[in-house]
Design a protein that fits this description.
five-stranded antiparallel sheet; five-stranded mixed sheet
Length: about 200
């Protein structure tokens, strides 16, 4: 659901406690979701958590555009530099987005594969339907059918909850990047209850 584990050592402890018969529950703590495990034989009394693991939301969507045939290493270095300057790690990236014209672009496919993130593309019509102020380019409009690829695809990739443009269009050697932050309210609703998972 778009979350990343803060500490995998904690996850191992949670998994071991569940295998040992513990009961797990998940709670929200700010933007984070925390899995807690309690002893399975302490129902109805004051319980002590025996293991816990926190997950943080992947909040950021990377919108990309690039010249056809861009070298994968060039695009990866460009994206990593932009994220570093913004103080964002690749673990916080939710997905990578672009226009349909770039669906077969090796450089973008390679980046998504290396980062193990979804690569999602949108048609020019879908991007044009987005409301907001974007850095328009007549050349991009003529070439792709939409006035801006990276900013529009970053916002489109935020999903139905919407998002905000955090980093507007940055360009370098035929590559463009924009960064959007997802509105997490919709995700909060999905974690609204606190279900208890009991071993069978």
């Amino acid at each position: 659901q778009g979350y990343t584990i803060q500490d995998r050592k904690d996850l191992k402890e949670v998994t071991a406690a569940m295998v040992a018969g513990g009961r797990a529950e998940r709670i929200r703590r700010g933007e984070d979701v925390v899995w807690r495990v309690f002893p399975g034989d302490m129902v109805g009394v004051q319980e002590k958590c025996v293991a816990a693991a926190a997950m943080s939301p992947r909040k950021y969507v990377v919108g990309l555009g690039c010249r056809r045939g861009t070298a994968p290493e060039s695009l990866r270095h460009f994206v990593e530099k932009q994220l570093k300057e913004a103080g964002i790690s690749k673990e916080q990236v939710f997905k990578i987005c672009s226009i349909e014209l770039k669906s077969e672009e090796l450089a973008v496919q390679n980046l998504a594969m290396k980062w193990n993130r979804p690569f999602v593309v949108f048609s020019a019509e879908q991007l044009n339907r987005l409301e907001g102020v974007f850095s328009a380019s007549l050349f991009v409009q003529k070439t792709t059918g939409t006035d801006n690829v990276c900013e529009r695809s970053a916002i489109a990739g935020c999903g139905p909850g919407g998002g905000e443009l955090l980093l507007p269009k940055n360009a370098e050697n035929g590559m463009t990047l924009a960064l959007a932050e997802r509105n997490l309210c919709a995700d909060y609703q999905s974690w609204g209850s606190v279900p208890v998972i009991r071993n069978r």
